[in-house]
Amino acid sequence: MDPTAPNRVASVGHRQTGPRWDRRTADLLAGSAQLTDEGTQLATADFAGWLAHRGREHASSVRRIDFTDLKGWHFLGQTGNLVHQSGRFFTVEGLRVRTSAGLFPEWHQPIIRQPEVGILGILAKEFDGVLHFLMQAKMEPGNPNLLQLSPTVQATRSNYTRAHRGSPVRYVEYFTGPRRGRVLADVLQSEHGSWFYRKHNRNVIVETRDEVPPHPDFCWLTLGQLHELLQRDNVVNMDSRTVLSSLPAAADGPDRRPARALSPDTEVLSWLTEQRSTHDWTIAPVPLAGLPDWHRTEREITRGDGRFFDVVAVAVDAASREVPSWTQPLIEPHGEGVTAFLVHDFDGVPHVLAHARMEGGLPLVVEVAPTVQCVPENHPADKRPRYLDQVLAARPAQVRYSARHSEEGGRFRNAVSRYLLVDADEALAAEPLAPEYAWLSVRQLERLTGAGLSVNVQARTLLTCLRSMAKPVPAADDKGW
Amino acid sequence: MDPTAPNRVASVGHRQTGPRWDRRTADLLAGSAQLTDEGTQLATADFAGWLAHRGREHASSVRRIDFTDLKGWHFLGQTGNLVHQSGRFFTVEGLRVRTSAGLFPEWHQPIIRQPEVGILGILAKEFDGVLHFLMQAKMEPGNPNLLQLSPTVQATRSNYTRAHRGSPVRYVEYFTGPRRGRVLADVLQSEHGSWFYRKHNRNVIVETRDEVPPHPDFCWLTLGQLHELLQRDNVVNMDSRTVLSSLPAAADGPDRRPARALSPDTEVLSWLTEQRSTHDWTIAPVPLAGLPDWHRTEREITRGDGRFFDVVAVAVDAASREVPSWTQPLIEPHGEGVTAFLVHDFDGVPHVLAHARMEGGLPLVVEVAPTVQCVPENHPADKRPRYLDQVLAARPAQVRYSARHSEEGGRFRNAVSRYLLVDADEALAAEPLAPEYAWLSVRQLERLTGAGLSVNVQARTLLTCLRSMAKPVPAADDKGW
């Protein structure tokens, strides 16, 4: 990027004002969401075949290895931290959390540090008047099925500044230079606060009018097609889900927003602010060596009691990545997660039951999270997370959405959760709430998501799933979806 | 605070939806802004006399002392960090900043660490149909004139949990418990990023209908009266200025917001996001002992070249504080600052020239800052900060606002800046901008401020000053003020 180039904010409309909100975006998104069966390039029915074909083109294998078989990675003598010899990519260190909140006043854990802001970017373009999104079939070693659908660009700074001397990142110029298109969304969002230390990425969607050179690993899909694919297990990867969550509401704009909710927006922001300032915490990186409760074997860093996660190492042989083969550490959680929002329509306006959740690695420590976010086996029967039993006991008719999705396959191995949207019955919806819970309208969840660094990545996935089920309705009838 | 009490978001309107935006707030604020000469309690003309009287009631003295005369404070043996024996309040440590941005790839500096979220709270109440704000005459040792007007509550957690075993903080129950009133604003805001490490406070305004017990150090003032007092030097303290900046725009609400600006809101957010992700930085607390370029004498920690600031110690004798006398460290900058927005009306819509500024201690490293923010003497003639000369050369007719204000007097000593709003002429307004600058409408600056942790404390002071000059206009004529 040329730092001397005049920026877009400066150069567009430098003398003339224009509207602060653009209805064209809302109309384009609504139109794109309506096409669920086919776009201009690939029918939804042909998608699985296309992805399988890409998989055969890039036959890949991933296997667990000993730490001593890592190439370029080693444990530092003094701290025991796991680092790359280039000093880049990421490191695995220790974290100590002390807090006045919750049941555990102090704990230690390994955590990934990667102090750089990556780009998760989706390129959008109109074909025949319908907005399409350029998605990539991307192999990541931690995905249970290796190949999933990623954003157009999914790159750490190390990637796109080519610290690893690999191939250039395809299409990255649409996101880093003086832009060629119109920005639909561009916001910082946190990543997993239990496994990353203060990591956040730029989530950006740019619409171009250029001819975009095709590539066999990429395909253009409508928003409706992406919504269809979100009904399937392990197809749309985490990075795609979070970027899509940052899109403005399909029917947005100041005169189109449903103006009703259980609580005014000011009270919702106040609730989050209060939850962020009610407790003390001291969070500090510490050496990985000698981390209390954890020990290192030849093949893993583990607690040994089967809870939470291990740090492991893998060897990757893949033809489709910028670098053809490599080794790296990954975090591997134990057990399948349950990630769910309880949902309820109040006066016909859909709401979710949000949890202000503290995670040691979040940039601002507390963010809005799903009602339930846990691996059930981690919790003894007498200390079940709140609302877990209600979610698991839901009758089929109460389950509005259910699919398995996996987390960032570049850092996490087999990190799969059941993502659920479960109807809360009237009795549950009328129960008083503990201070860290609140009913937010879907629009309020969207607003907090659009502000950045306020809604965690699991809740953002669920927001994308929520939207994937919405029937587009005329703006006049819009009740909040 | 009782953590088991049902929260407000849960308990208010639990079954029924209501409007997400409340016009009553906008109307109350507009009405309160119109009364500039008198409220129901104290005429503006009598304010100076009242404050002087409070000063005589609380005769205070502050004097510089040697570090060895600090009581309860000492330098830790190993790190040389300056700490309090209770382990609370704050510490003075070292900070190392490495960055790919700007002229200086690495620097070291002392910095204040205070890992707790304080409360800056203003209580509001209607008298005779006009909203008044409860302000406090508060002595702070770093203020050049000691006594200034502070929010109703200005308390660190150490204060209001009574870590120092002093008196309880008056009126704090309006902000920490299940609230007695209606929230007008409640948002986290950063403090000085050059002097504090990741410090942020809760900025909160609550409207009560209770009878509020009076106290001679407190007075009720209208928004118009506060605006009048902001025209004077060193009266309205930093904490008051930042809390007032968090108020919603007087004519807010989705159908009242001026919908025009030079750039759409999406582009403005994109500009800030890009500026937050364009550069690498590594920011780490380091020991104060042996900090490169700095050394410690008996009376100060200093660079010795007269630039930036010193760490000093003072003894305070004051009757009005929760604790009658104490000693403490303070940061004392060298020279008077210049803090200015260039402003320009495009198509009649007022805009400010914003700077995406990196400060080592900011929670998210980059925030929106004034066009100019510096102490001119720190910069050699050949490395003048951009736009400083244009601001200093402004003709009187171009200066829309000018007053001296001081920064947080509980931590900073004689930290005074000239706060300026300077008209940019047509030629300057038409110049191309470097990527880290952008013209934002005042409403866009307000929106970013309302989101929290996006606009730095100096720019928030200037926003409050901007609003203090606005003539209230009927909503139909509203062009953006």
TrEMBL record, chains A, B:
**Entry's InterPro entries?**
EvaA-like (IPR005212), EvaA-like_sf (IPR038153)
Domain dTDP-4-dehydro-6-deoxy-alpha-D-glucopyranose 2,3-dehydratase span(s) in chain numbering: 45-247, 266-466
- Which spans of this chain does the record mark as coiled coil? none
Transmembrane regions = none
In terms of domain of life, where is this protein from?
A: Bacteria
One family name in Pfam for this protein = Hexose_dehydrat
What protein name applies here? NDP-hexose 2,3-dehydratase family protein
Q: Which organism is it from?
A: Streptomyces hyderabadensis
Q: What is the lineage of its organism?
A: Bacteria, Bacillati, Actinomycetota, Actinomycetes, Kitasatosporales
